[in-house]
Amino acid sequence: MILAFALLGVYQLGSWAVHRLLGLFVVVLVAFFVSLAMEPAVDSLAARGMPRGLATAGVFIVLFGCLIGFSAALGTLLVETVDNVVGETPRLTEESVDWINRTFGQDFTVTQLRDRLLKDSDVISGYAERAADHAWGLSNTILGGLFRFLLIALFSIYFTAYGPRMRRSICALLPPRSHDAVLSAWDLAVEKTGGYLYSRAVLAVISAIAHGVFLAILDIPDALALGVWFGVIASFVPTVGTYVAGVLPILVALTVQPIDAVWILLFVVIYQVFQDYILQPRLTARTVDVNPAVALLAVLGGGALLGAIGALLAIPVTATVQAFSSLYLRRYEVPEDPRIDRTTLGRPEKD
């Protein structure tokens, strides 16, 4: 009984510690994969004679510069979009009311709509009060996210700068027969994570150019910024990135020429099919070759375990595990068999 109670206490203590340290574990995991993605660039600079610390600093300065530039451009774009929506709301409201009256034979007026909203002002004020109550929680969430971002940046820089020393320290704790497996797994992780980042970056550039040009043809305001927004979000946000990225250009088009929103939606769908079936397979075949069904399952599983971060890391992790297992799993040659290749069934045999 004493042993059972002791084991129960140890389990409760371990469970409490895991729940408390889960956030830190996620931060370290993300930082580790960021360092794996940055390591090829740092190794390339270090091989040319640049000190590793200076090479790490240069690579991360470029990375942070791109993130800051994208965030600034996105903030400006969102402010301009909200301002356009607010300024065009009266015109869009009048046009919508006129369309409803013509289409359905009604006789609504903007005044009636305004009176209805004022009549339901209690509901609106209730939403406002709840939003004000959650303002403090939102500010805490933003500060917490900023703190986690700084932690990820700090650990990423450390892991990248001291990558060779970390590998040596890990190998020093293991028997010599395990060194080859550990170093092979590490190299595969670097190759697949860097390949994933490379393929996503190329897809983002192509998508940004294509959507930017199309939006410019439609004479949509801030076409270049919207193209960059679409390229980054659609390429780096798994599964739902395309749909999230398409909302902002469509919203901007609604404030200019509503029919353009339909053309943007059609172009987004057509380009997504082109990217999924033609462009992406050609890129990932040389970088991260993962079956689309396996990739979707990995993204869903990673999202269920660690949320958005897990979904983002799922594909490089899956590619690494797949490549590492292929080195040690024994495969056998399978002869041709009509029960495997169903396309051969029912065909007449050649003489």
UniProtKB/TrEMBL annotation:
The chain crosses the membrane at residues 24-42, 54-79, 142-161, 197-218, 224-244, 251-274, 294-321. It is a multi-pass membrane protein. InterPro entries: AI-2E-like (IPR002549). Keywords: Cell membrane, Membrane, Transmembrane, Transmembrane helix, Transport. The keyword Amino-acid biosynthesis does not apply. Its main location: membrane. GO terms for cellular component: plasma membrane. It comes from the Bacteria. Pfam families: AI-2E_transport. GO terms for biological process: transmembrane transport. Belongs to the autoinducer-2 exporter (AI-2E) (TC 2.A.86) family. This is AI-2E family transporter. It comes from Nocardia bovistercoris.
